[in-house]
Amino acid sequence: MGIGESLIIKAIASATGRTKDQIKADIEKKGDMGTVAEMSRSNQKVLFAPPKLTVGSVFDKFKAITQMSGNSTQDKKCKMIESMLVACRDCEARYLVRSLAGKLRIGLAEQSLLNAITQAVIMTNNEKLKRGSDKFKTQLADASLI
Question: I need a labelling partner for 14 at 20 to 30 A (CA). Which of 38, 55, 81, 123 fits?
Fold first, then answer.
């Protein structure tokens, strides 16, 4: 996705109230930004629970992040990542950060997972759509270009 480690570390620090140095030290120890993000979120207390993440909302934010350009793009990306991290529950932060970094570590090729997410979003957004129909294939082809 083109998201650098330093931007992800900045977003984790901002979302969890920890310093970048603390995050970096934990990454050195654990060897995985996703695990550090999950651990950092699990230690955090919040007054109000944010809305749950959905496949569609995460997909839309990933799409928006990849299409950003211009002035203060890094800050905008950081804020979007931060908002997703704040909404993460349980192990979601681990896989969100790994997806952003392009290091899923789950034994699947990234493209296979992205295709599965794309199909899930298309099917969720249009319950009447038949999997083998021409309209489905067109929407899948368009969404896969992202």
Answer: 55
